[in-house]
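Table 4 source record.
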Amino acid sequence: MKRSNAVLIAVLTLGLVWTSLAPGQADTRKPDPEKAEPKKAESRADDAKKAPDQAVKKEEKKPETKPVVAVFTLDGPIVEKPLQEDFPLAEPGTKTLKELVTRLEKARDDQQVKAVVFLVDEGAVDLAQVEELRQTIDSIKAAGKKVYAHVDALLETRNFALAAGASELSVTPTAIIMITGFSAESPYLRGLLDWIGVKPDFLACGEYKTAAEMFMRKGPSPAAERMQTWLLDSLFQSCLESIAQGRKAPVDQVRQWINEGLYTPEKAKTLRIIDQVEYREAFEARLRAKYGQDLQFKKDYGKQREEEIDLSSPLALFKVWAEILQGGKKKALPKNSVAIVYVDGPIVPGKAEQSVLGGDAGAFSTTIRKALDKAAADENVKAVVLRVNSPGGSAVASEIILNATRQVAAKKPFAVSMGSVAGSGGYYVTCGADTIFADATTITASIGVVGGKLATTDLWNKVGIIWDADHRGANADLLSSEAVFSDDQRKQMQDWMNDIYGVFKGHVAAARGKKLRKPIDELAGGRVFTGRQALDLGLVDKIGTL
């Protein structure tokens, strides 16, 4: 039997979404039957015989419109990749950031919608998503509509950063207000590995490429500590400023709120951390008093209705399988579109496999390359955006995606939009873009290489399992978990990784050129930055959202 422990690799997930730039659809409402038939002309004598009220022409009936509040419930994670619309048994109810923003913009532009409500639950959003949603909230308020946020259970730092952007923020009388800031905790496993008989053997290109330290060390290196400090400082400052802007309070005041941390709702109201303390029913009643008793709360505002499938019907199941085998439902592509190609998750070689439950997780290079090729060749696509939300992965897969983006950029405008994270391979794939956008709280860069393996022979021996290995070729056991690298193998591995590292730095230097504020070696080495820091260093072009 052969044991192998491949060099750390990562995975990726893709989706292709078309956003139309064409004019809106024509009005397709059917005419009122009463209006469609022309009325027979009547004489003045006939009119004179009628009662006065009958002689007056009836006014046309106008459809009754009731005021609407668009309600958005944030009670779970918001994902980047497109929903599996073509695969009917995919998990229902999942929210994507793009879909949520689109629905909010629809509410902003809908004249029947008088206000927007966020029902905020714990742990629903990360900081970069907060940033993008806050920009949309600001645009709704700029359109003259109020945005309300209501919290039932827990108001913590990230959700407070989102809710602070609302026109009014209310919580229930028993809500927990725990705006205590951020905490970063990293496990170091070397002691455990030594105890169970596992020998880690990892190499890195760059002092700050610290991903494997959790296996190699019993605590952080000085470089890891420095990097964590500058990252947390930047993220915390962005969060303070966001809350201060929303609550119209000085940054120092917000810092004091967070340092004191835990509040009762009434105390939080006194300190102007929140505006109202009320149960959901009183909250709704207050909105009815303001906008009218006939106010409608649309809790699924703007959400497309999903086709229900009768799983007890064999014919329905046959239909599902047929759609999957045919690659899903084919949709007409509108003219003058922008193609958004998603790099979501760890980047890995190969293609994503679809199943009745949806696609594989990860960003697969073959799948993404095909999507980019399709976008480049389609005459209806006028520009392409690569949306990256990935911590990195395979260097080979990253190079394949980068090459495909260059083919796109040679034919039409091509930009990158970074989500919560675009590090290592996630930054690698951006090097072909005309313009790179990031959120201020995006985690990015990490220009470096790390790889290695875990040798587990001693562990197996402890539990009474003996592996018998036989090799042909001096390095046949290079990636085997039988033993750590020999000195010669370690040199080969380091040389190979150094070559990859040199290519990576070369791509960045060529792509960014004079935009870089420092020499490439002072920006690489595995250093990780926030989007705000990356902008100052010339690693991205603009702070902006998808």
